[in-house]
Write a structure and sequence with these properties.
- With 205 residues, this protein is an alpha+beta fold.
- It has a domain of 143 residues: 2-Layer Sandwich (Pantoate--beta-alanine Ligase, Chain: A,domain 2), CATH 3.30.1300.
- Helix content is 47%, strand content 15%.
- It contains five helices and four strands; from the N terminus they run ααββαββαα.
- The protein has a four-stranded antiparallel β-sheet with strand order 1-2-3-4, with helices on one face.
- A hairpin with a 2-residue loop joins strand 1 and strand 2.
- The longest helix has 51 residues.
- The protein starts with 5 loop residues before the first helix and ends in a 7-residue tail after the last helix.
């Protein structure tokens, strides 16, 4: 055998080996393709469910924050001018949502600590009129038009704010002047004073 025939035999042997390798490869069966499709669908559904849950959770957090901000604004409005409060029978639009609200005002009874006789005259706040202090509670919740309820329920985004308030101690120095300058402001101020006196607002208990 001469050397010039060696390259040809090597090429033939290499080609045979390659053809043998091609014949030994196994393709994916129909069952494997179906299982891969099902697994891919399950992973996609899980991811979609997680994204949907996170979006809904973030939305409810935004609604709770809106309810808290609205409750705080209503409290400030009550402190500035009780007659300027919106109607409780109508929902209030705040940001992208509608909220309902309610308010309850209750008198407060203070139990004072017993002081020695010589310290009663020098006690701080001994001349404060505690009888006019009121406990104001405001509840705000998501309206039924937004998937909430017409009545208050903790199942939906809500906020509750409670505060002790002196009706005559306005939070804004300009609030008193604004009330006096408004039509019928003086009459409302005197009516408020009369109501407090009629409720027994004289002196500390």
């Amino acid at each position: 055998m001469t050397r010039k025939h060696l390259p040809t035999r090597r090429v033939q042997v290499t080609a045979r080996c390659r053809r043998g390798q091609v014949h030994t490869r196994r393709g994916a069966t129909l069952i494997e393709a179906v299982l891969a499709t099902v697994l891919l669908g399950m992973v996609a559904a899980t991811l979609a469910s997680a994204v949907s849950y996170m979006t809904a959770s973030q939305r409810r957090m935004q609604q709770r924050l809106g309810a808290a901000e609205l409750a705080n604004r209503l409290m400030l409005m009550y402190m500035d001018d009780q007659d300027a409060m919106p109607s409780k029978s109508l929902p209030i639009e705040y940001d992208m949502d509608m909220f309902r609200w309610t308010m309850q005002v209750d008198p407060v009874k203070f139990t004072m600590a017993q002081l020695p006789p010589e310290a009663e005259d020098n006690a701080i706040g001994s001349g404060v009129n505690f009888g006019r202090i009121r406990l104001v509670s405001i509840k705000v919740w998501l309206s039924e038009d937004q998937g909430g309820a017409r009545g208050f329920s903790t199942e939906f985004p809500n906020a509750q704010l409670t505060r002790l308030i002196d009706p005559l101690a306005l939070s804004n120095p300009d609030s008193l002047q604004t009330m006096i300058d408004s039509p019928g402001g003086m009459e409302r101020l005197f009516e408020r004073l009369m109501e407090l006196d009629a409720a027994g607002g004289g002196g500390a208990p």
